[in-house]
Backbone:
């Protein structure tokens, strides 16, 4: 069954109480959201400096949400993101944990069904949180773009590859930023103010994706961010953001909701572009 990680649960609670927090604690909340993948290795003084507050404010923040202090709250981030930062090793650890936690050996069919359930729940959340205005703005952004660049790395690279492939079926000029040969900088440097970048990333955020989003923003191009939070680092440079919260099973996140959203984005764009073509063809223009 899909469920939020401990960090997701904490950030959800923080978001619900954000407006009631004192200004200093709001600063801590924003910092935690933006630096969620780095909190596990930072000292309390580093966090306080990043929030521009005294370390005691960080302690008060942790206590506000039921922890004895910063160290106990930090442990929540460490347990969640240690696995994500070291994927090859953590994959083995996660499989072993499934075996150790199981009361009885689980059939492969049961495991498959749990992943299917996780994906289904993720799609339900995608539908429940769907923002029509943001989606319309995303489509319009792509309609107006002369060139469309696409960037995602590691686990989400397959989605970038798909959306770039799909977009090739339109009349748009499409560029997949693959980073082949380490050439991320070279592949993004030509983006201009009439272009758009589709950037896809989730915690721990790919530094290459964040770099390309910054460059696009600096070049006055439009940035369409597909990510998990409006407070995250990718949203910082976004012209439009589409939010996705994936389901997970056995500590493995699905990609079902993200690929569904990207497919819907492509179909909506292709439909809108075809309508524009139809508008330029006057009735009877091609009649014999």
Residues:
């Amino acid at each position: 069954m899909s469920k939020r990680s401990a960090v997701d649960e904490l950030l959800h609670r923080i978001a619900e109480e954000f407006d009631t927090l004192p200004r200093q604690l709001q600063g801590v909340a924003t910092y935690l959201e933006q630096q969620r993948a780095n909190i596990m290795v930072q000292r309390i003084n580093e966090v306080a400096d990043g929030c521009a507050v005294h370390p005691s404010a960080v302690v008060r923040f942790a206590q506000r949400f039921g922890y004895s202090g910063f160290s106990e709250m930090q442990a929540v981030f460490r347990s969640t993101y240690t696995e994500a930062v070291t994927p090859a090793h953590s994959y083995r650890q996660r499989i072993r944990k499934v075996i150790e936690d199981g009361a009885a050996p689980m059939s492969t069919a049961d495991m498959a069904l749990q992943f299917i359930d996780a994906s289904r729940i993720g799609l339900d959340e995608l539908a429940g949180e769907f923002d029509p205005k943001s989606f319309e703005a995303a489509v319009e952004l792509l309609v107006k773009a002369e060139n469309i660049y696409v960037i995602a790395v590691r686990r989400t690279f397959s989605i970038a590859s798909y959306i770039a492939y799909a977009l090739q079926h339109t009349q748009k000029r499409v560029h997949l930023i693959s980073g082949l040969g380490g050439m991320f900088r070279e592949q993004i440097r030509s983006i201009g103010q009439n272009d758009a970048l589709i950037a896809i990333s989730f915690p721990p955020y790919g530094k290459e994706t964040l770099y390309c989003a910054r460059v696009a923003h600096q070049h006055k191009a439009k940035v369409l961010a597909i990510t998990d939070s409006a407070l995250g680092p990718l949203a910082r440079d976004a012209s439009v953001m589409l939010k996705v919260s994936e389901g997970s099973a056995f500590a493995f996140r699905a990609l079902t909701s993200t690929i569904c959203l990207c497919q819907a984005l492509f179909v909506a764009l292709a439909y809108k572009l075809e309508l524009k073509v139809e508008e330029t063809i006057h009735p009877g223009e091609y009649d014999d």
Remarks:
- The longest helix spans residues 256-280.
- The CA atoms of residues 46 and 191 lie 35 Å apart.
